[in-house]
Amino acid sequence: MTLVLISMIIPALNPLGLPLMVGSMSKAWYNTIDEAPEGSVILFDIGFGSGGYPSLGPGTIAAFHQMFENGHKIIMMATALEGSMMYPLIMASVKPEQNYDAVYGEDWMFFGYIAGGQTAMAGILGDIRALTSTDFEGNDVDTLPIMDGVNSADDFDIVAYVTTSGDTSEGWVYQAYSQYNRPVLGGMLSMMTTSMKPYYDTGQILGLMDGIKGAADLEFLTGHPGDAIISSDILSFSQTLVLIFIALGNIAYWMQKKGGS
Amino acid sequence: MVDYRRDIPLAITFIIGVIAVLDYYTTFESISNTFTVIKNWGVVLQAFALGLGAINLLRVHGRRISEKRDGWYFSVWLLAMMFIFIIVGLMTGKYEAGATYSWLYNAIYLPLGATMYSSLAFYMAYGSYKVLRARNFEAGLLFITAVLVIIGNTPIFPAMFPSLFSLREWIFGPIVGGAYRGIRIGVGMGAVVLGIRTLVGLETGYLGRR
User: Fold this and answer.
1) Is residue B139 domain-shared with residue B191, that is, in the same domain?
2) To pair with A220 at 20 to 30 A between CA atoms, which of A151, B99, B156, B170?
3) Do B58 and B85 sit in the same domain of this protein?
4) Chain A residue nearest residue B177, CA to CA
5) How far is A153 from chain B (nearest CA, A)?
6) Which residue among A51, A179, A201 sits closest to B177, beta carbon to beta carbon?
7) Is there a domain that residue B207 lies in?
8) B74 and B110 co-located in one domain
9) Do the Cβ atoms of B40 and A238 come within 8 Å?
């Protein structure tokens, strides 16, 4: 375990800039946002909390950089309890007002945490004003220019989410794609890639940001290097060490078996 | 004889379930409006469930403290932190998190939550060392597949040898994807059967112990 810890600390303290290959799923996410017409309305779900922030936070920040650069309108919500606390952390890194002259209420807004999981998704895709009349800061929804003409799923051009929950990840496919045929982009932990890739293969999800690797890809593609690219060095070191452990374990096992027989 | 404690919840489940199904398959405005109201009430109920969870925590851990069970001091710490967050959160206004609450969250909860997830890395490294041994044919297949996927997932190797990434994609595609689709189809069919049984009142597990 000490060796694993050392393999993580060295690249964390001294980033090496090891090469990485951009995956096709992350590239598809990037292309979907890039090819959307300027001013597209994107519903974005912050579906993770403190546990997922190291893996998914950097990718979310890179995604927002790209959306603001492309002039898209972002309507944010949180299906995770801690999503409301992730929002200020993410916005403090993106700095949309300073970097992109974006204005809250015109270029982005945040509904806050909406309880209920898929019930919340169905509610916001069905009739926003029946679900909530105010945003996270207490402003009346009808006073926000970004909400002009936006009230249900048909008014969203893309539905995107980043989450650590399998229920949320599949829930957006059921609610946004199956019921309303909205284009969906999904971000999740690497361990969830296996379960979500079939949806990507069938076209129900247009792009996947899979964990820290996907986040690093997005940071590279958007030209906003951050914690994920540094973490990809840590990933290279630690996983190489794990491979060495596996090899040593098998060599020791077979030598022991041979010695015993 | 009508059993009100059983029959009324079953009737409510049936009516709301039918409205939900009709909303999906039809375009009647009255059905859509009714289901919108039901969905919004669902959101409110689930928000109240959070408060109920906090009360339940108080009840369970309060009993642990009063009975001085093993580790009761951890329960004291848990309840103390819960009340600190609740009191500070309620004091800092209706809509804003407030500087104090944000500091509490960012300084205490965020690093702890991140650490809990990060500790998985050590368990997975040790587990890989213990489990991935080619003891027999099946274990050997698992070993080879796991090693190929780990190599494909390690950023540096596909960057140097792109064919390794293609190999990982191939494993994820036809092999894992095919198997997972089979599982999901089975789960989906089971969910449909469970839904129908719940609607007609054959499944009553959600009513609780009676």
Assistant:
1) yes
2) B170
3) no
4) A198
5) 13
6) A201
7) no
8) yes
9) no
Q: Structurally, what CATH architecture does the domain formed by A22-226 represent?
A: 3-Layer(aba) Sandwich (3.40)
Residue B96's pLDDT band, with cuts at 50, 70 and 90, is low
Contact assignment for B153 to A88 by CB distance below 8 Å: no
Note whether residue B11 is domain-resident. yes
The number of C-beta contacts closer than 8 angstroms across A and B is: 167
What one-letter code names the amino acid at A178? S
Q: How far apart are CA A83 and CA A139, in angstroms?
A: 19
- Domain for residue B90, yes or no? yes
pLDDT at A215: 94
**Cα-to-chain-centroid distance, residue B67:** 31
User: How far apart are the CA of A244 and the nearest CA of chain B, in angstroms?
Assistant: 9
How far does Cα A158 stand from its chain's mean position?
A: 14
Is B83 inside a domain boundary? Answer: yes
Exposure letters A64-74 (e unless 16+ CB within 10 A, then b): bbbbbebebbb
> What tens-digit pLDDT sequence spans chain A (261 residues)?
777 777 778 877 777 777 778 889 999 999 999 999 999 999 999 999 999 999 999 999 999 999 999 999 999 999 999 999 999 999 999 999 999 999 999 999 999 999 999 999 999 999 999 999 999 989 999 999 999 999 999 999 999 999 999 999 999 999 999 999 999 999 999 889 888 999 999 999 999 999 999 999 999 999 998 889 888 888 888 888 888 888 888 888 888 888 766
Domain encompassing residue B11: 1-66
- B98 vs B40, more confident: B40
> Regarding predicted confidence, which is higher, B97 or A164?
A164
Instruction: Say which of B43, B165, B176 has its CB closest to residue A120.
Output: B43
ipTM: 0.84
pLDDT over threshold 60, residue B210:
no
Instruction: Tell me which chain B residue has its CA closest to the CA of residue A152.
Output: B36
CA distances from A236 to A2, A26, A184, A250, B155 (A): 17, 18, 30, 21, 6
pLDDT tens digit string along B123-154?
888 888 788 887 888 888 888 888 888 888 88
Q: What is the number of domains present in chain B?
A: 3
At residue A64's C-alpha, the angle toward residues A31 and A51, to 5°, is 110
B4: contact with A, CB 8 A cutoff: no
Residues B13 and B1 in one domain: yes
Same domain? B147 vs B93: no
* B140 interfaces chain A, CB cutoff of 8 Å: no
Closest Cα partner for A141 from A118, A124, A153? A124
| Cβ neighbours of A18 (radius 10 Å) | 18
